[in-house]
Amino acid sequence: MNQVRKADPNNKTVAENRKARFSYEVLDTVEAGLVLTGTEVKSLRQGQANIQDSYASVEGGEIWLINSYLPEYLQANRFNHEPRRRRKLLLNKREMAKLSQSIDREGMTLVPLKIYFNDQGRAKLLLAVGRGKKLHDKRETEKQRDWSREKGRLMKERG
């Protein structure tokens, strides 16, 4: 009935931007494919990618992931990739139009949340449409987080 799944090696998170939910108010998320070379995929499978300082931008009717870091694959020798190159995101036309309109009209930002491998073993990027939080919003988020921690401790003490 309720079978416990083994950790699927294909379906795993490679890189996560944990700071994004603190710095941005996430309004919508979209799953996008990535155009990668062979050595980039092998490097991703080793799990050493970083998307902390990266962002997505609409240029020429296409969406690009900029400033993401995928380290070089050591066994690739001279056929290696550039670690901080721009990577094209794969979305259908309707999704691209929707994202570009929200960026242009409403002043939103495209923030990558995580890179992972789906069930078919393809690298995917979870892309969020977000609005930057102001300082007082960040403080409020921190207060709520601290209070929920404290509430958990109090509940644990009292039983």
UniProtKB/TrEMBL annotation:
Its main location: cytoplasm. Residues 137-159 have a biased composition (Basic and acidic residues). It is found in: Cytoplasm. Residues 135-159 are annotated as: Disordered. GO terms for biological process: trans-translation; trans-translation-dependent protein tagging. InterPro entries: SmpB (IPR023620), SsrA-bd_prot (IPR000037), SsrA-bd_prot_CS (IPR020081). One of its GO terms (molecular function) is RNA binding. One of its GO terms (cellular component) is cytosol. Required for rescue of stalled ribosomes mediated by trans-translation. Binds to transfer-messenger RNA (tmRNA), required for stable association of tmRNA with ribosomes. tmRNA and SmpB together mimic tRNA shape, replacing the anticodon stem-loop with SmpB. tmRNA is encoded by the ssrA gene; the 2 termini fold to resemble tRNA(Ala) and it encodes a 'tag peptide', a short internal open reading frame. During trans-translation Ala-aminoacylated tmRNA acts like a tRNA, entering the A-site of stalled ribosomes, displacing the stalled mRNA. Belongs to the SmpB family. This is SsrA-binding protein. The lineage of its organism: Bacteria, Pseudomonadati, Pseudomonadota, Alphaproteobacteria, Hyphomicrobiales. The gene is smpB.
